[in-house]
Predict the structure.
Amino acid sequence: MNPMVQGILTIVIGVGGCVGYFYFANLILDKFIFPATGPNPGHNINRANQVRPWLFLFPAIFALGLYLVYPVIGSFWRSLFNREGSEFIGMGNYTALWADEQFTTSLFNNMLWVIVVPAGATFFGLLAAQLTDRLKWGNIAKSLIFMPMAISFVGASLIWKFVYANDADIGMINAVRAMLGADTPVDVLQIPFWNNFFLMVILIWIQTGFAMVILSAALRGVPEDTIEAAIIDGANPFQIFFKIKVPQIIGTIVVVWTTITILVLKVFDIVYATTGGNFGTQILPSYMMSYMFRDDGRATAVAFVIMIIVLPVMIWNIAQARKEMR
Amino acid sequence: MKFNPLACAAVLALTSGMAWADGHAALKFAPGEDSAFNWASYEDFAAANDFSGQEMSMTGPWTGADKELVENMLAYFEAATGASVNYSGSDSFEQDIVIASQAGSAPNVGVFPQPGLAADLAARGALAPLGNETADWVRDNYAAGQSWVDLGTYGNESGEDELFGFFYKVDVKSLVWYVPEAFDEAGYDIPESMEDLKALTDQIVADGGTPWCIGLGSGAATGWPATDWVEDMMLRTQAPDVYDQWVANEIPFDDERVLEAIEEYGYFARNDTYVDGGATSVANTDFRDSPGGLFEFPPKCYMHRQASFIPTFFPDGTEVGEDVDFFYFPAYAEKDLGKPVLGAGTLFALTNDSPVARGFIEFLKTPIAHEVWMAQSGFLTPHKGVNTDTYASDTLRALGDVLLGATTFRFDGSDLMPAEIGADAFWKGMVAYTGGEDGASVAKTIQDRWSSIQ
């Protein structure tokens, strides 16, 4: 079948199925199970209203249960078994992880990522949002900063690999160094410890646009009169920014920060595509990849560690977002 | 307009003629034209097999220039049987094929660069056996047939040995590439022994040149060229049975004999004056870009140790045999280990059984399937029934001679080790070692990982 027709058909069946489910489930509930006729219609209407939310929630709960809750439990269960999945070894995979130097390196690097990337992206995003706020060409600048968001992580990694190339004819960093008189190019991806930061720059470059867009909307939402009052009181631009604007958008800043944090904990593409985890740049997700489909017990154990690290950030993020909404 | 049956017939004949011409324009060498090719095997196969309208999917490690070469070969299968083949190449084939087979979306045919990985999948029941008939065929028609059968035979789900892999396209790895003109100009001779090679290396440095280009970069597979170096060194410092024990982990990875081979590799790669760009550039230079230094003027380096497939990545228009040539990566004269040759090959396995995929394996047995790639580049075959005149150059024929002149032939060890070692820990360990880490601690890390999976 023509893929186009196939796609359209899938959409029609999918959307139609959803609408049909709600319409007919509702209809059956009202007309047949608890009809508003017969001996006691009032009681029936009440009972139908009690059932209705569950009826409407059911598809979502079912899908979330099947695709989120089940995999989490299933992964945890799998992480208690050995490589082949045939023998129960309890916490064996977890203790093996702690003994593995690679794991501790990844954990340490991941901590660095979690601290540096959200801070960097939020900082530059806030800066860009504030600076472009009232400029005539601010929107052009914003679109340019936002553009990396549209590039895939692997694409961005390859672009930055050229920037970092160990060759003054290709790599920008080495070209600048050569201009300043350095004789030999350096491979920045091989400088121990600092190479991690060169990789983080890639993600900051991508995520700054995201932070900027959200924060710029929040800045627009700051009431004019508070700013005017501050100006009349003689506040300088820095005071207006730090003491008037930032406190009013702090909730948004936290949400942006935590959202990027969660993203950081899942990104493996950048490390995978640039250094492949070599030169001490391994992070948890890419470390997991080196076990995945070979030793699934170990890989799921790593996945679970990642989940435990993400969990508090996620709960905080949701709590903040809900506070924002109120 | 008056209906004219004759005109209709003429139009029909014209269009069908065009379709015919189209179909054949895709074939690199027109069937029947060059008598060096075994066209009879092509015609016979075409007559016996018809898969019109059927599709076959195939994934493999060949991308870029290699992808074109394999597609040129596949075109003959398509033309002969009417089947259509979708080939997709991936740089991270090793991961992709495992994911696809676990997800139940495996292609019909997988081209494995590593027997270890294929063995893994066979043990999980993800491969379909090729049958005794094919095993007998390989035994009879490939040079050193039994060794190829052994390399393609693995235990299935219930542990019984069966033939799962059909070897097609073999690489010789123990080669050093050089530019004859550069050697002539500087007055260097081809080294006949490892002692000579080391002397030549020092000589080039003394003359102000850089002897070697080494690059380990290969995306997620970064590090593999170094494992080839170590394996070649292993065969040149130890007897073949030590090599076999090492590959099977009967001697630990941090055994001093293994360590000696690693240090022998380090002798070349970790010396700033020996390698182009200094030792730090080795780990991150892409292996495909690395030989480029040979062709610069003045040369960035004089020698490049790499397998027989590498001419595919030489600059366009490079004539192998004239602009660039190779010599056998020599053995130590004093050690009396003969002329060991390290090699590798890709094996075709049925990852999703279907009649057309079986037909394709049958096609790979025909001489023509080998000859059409021999006549292009980067292809060697142990098939005894092919006409070696079809090799595109004397160089390729000479490569075949290296294969034949070997006193010891060993398959690439990292490909035989379990995937976690041969396709991860060994690679990463070698990258770390090249970057300056201590050889003993790298070897211990690899052995620890190996111990943890046993």
Summary: Chain A has a mean pLDDT of 89.
